[in-house]
Amino acid sequence: MRIDILTLFPEMFAPIKESILKRGAESGKLEINIINIRDYSKDKHKKCDDYTFGGGPGMLMMPQPIYDAITSIDGYKDARKIYLSPKGKIFNQKMASELSKNNHIILLCGHYEGVDQRVIDLLIDEEISVGDYVLTGGELPAMIIVDAVSRLIPGVLGGELSAEIETFSDGLLEYPQYTKPREFMGLEVPEVLLSGNHQKIDEWRKQKSLELTKNNRPDLLDKNN
Ligand code: 4FN
């Protein structure tokens, strides 16, 4: 898979280049490209933002540098072109799974008050949001997408582990887990986990998973079961 990320702040992606990219690139299964939108500005001062028509506070990202940055990408027409935006559908594991099936993804990160609508209308396939809070840019959301999607690609990062987690969790929250020692600061590991009775252990874990999901994330129960 190839992921191109368009941003005005390429330096924010230093950690992602370090971790995921290294292992993915080594295995040859994942290539991540960070593209600086500013490089495509035709302005002598490399300006990429301007005031909004109709007035109102803040600046907007101009369409031309973004348009040129996207259309300069080799194979951009066949890529899944995504704008990270609070207006998008809320990202979830199912969407991560669908995205992991693409050969080529382009992620556009907004800044200021966002991007000129025409760039969305002309080039973007889908808007995705990672949650309901105000952020300063789409860069952290893009990294969340990259993290969630890349670990589903076989041979990258936790490509094997991921299948395991999905099979056993049924979309529920995970049960509490314990390691050594058996007693820590006066708290004991639940007796059943030491019993060696795997049917009892499975029942306990399932019940804890359900209990936790009912209390903290009832929305997950409605969705999956
Ligand atoms: N955010 C809200 C309402 C209005 C504006 C915002 C907001 C960054 C460019 C978008 C935010 C959250 C999740 C991208 C938020 C995301 C962004 C995301 C994002 C600068 C314009 C902006 C009602 C959600 C609180 C700023 C709600 N997932 N505007 O944050 O890019 O991807």
Plain-language structure description:
The chain is an alpha/beta fold and 225 residues long. It has two domains: 2-160, SPOUT methyltransferase, trefoil knot domain (Alpha/beta knot); 165-224, Trp Operon Repressor, Chain A, CATH 1.10.1270.20. It has helices spanning 14-27, 63-71, 93-99, 117-123, 139-150, 159-169, 198-216, 218-224; strands at 2-7, 31-36, 49-51, 59-61, 80-90, 104-109, 126-129, 183-184, 187-188. Strands 2-1-6-5-7 form a five-stranded parallel β-sheet, sandwiched between helices. Strands 3-4 form a two-stranded antiparallel sheet. The protein has a two-stranded antiparallel ribbon with strand order 8-9. Strand 8 and strand 9 (187-188) form a beta hairpin. Helix 2 (63-71) packs parallel to helix 4 (117-123) and helix 7 (198-216) crosses helix 8 (218-224). The longest helix is centred in the last third of the chain and has 19 residues, at 198-216. The radius of gyration is 22 Å and the shape is elongated. The chain starts with a strand and ends with a helix. The mean pLDDT is 93. It binds ligand 4FN. Ligand 4FN is lined by residues 84-86, 110-111, 113-114, 129-138, 141.
- Report Rg: 22 Å
Q: Compute the average pLDDT.
A: 93
Annotated CATH architecture of the largest domain: 3-Layer(aba) Sandwich
CATH homologous superfamily descriptor of the largest domain = SPOUT methyltransferase, trefoil knot domain
Small ligands present: ligand 4FN
What's the level 1 CATH class of the largest domain?
Alpha Beta
Share in helix: 25-40%
Series of H and E elements = EHEEEHEHEHEHHEEHH
Number of domains: 2
Spans of at least 5 consecutive residues with low confidence = none
Instruction: Summarize the biggest pleated sheet.
Output: 5 strands, parallel
Per CATH, what is the topology of the largest domain? Answer: Alpha/beta knot
Rough outline: elongated
* End-to-end separation: 32 Å
Query: Which class best fits the helix and strand makeup?
Result: alpha/beta
Q: Please give the count of helices.
A: 8
β-strand amount: 15-25%
Number of strands: 9
Order of neighbouring strands in the sheet with most strands:
2-1-6-5-7
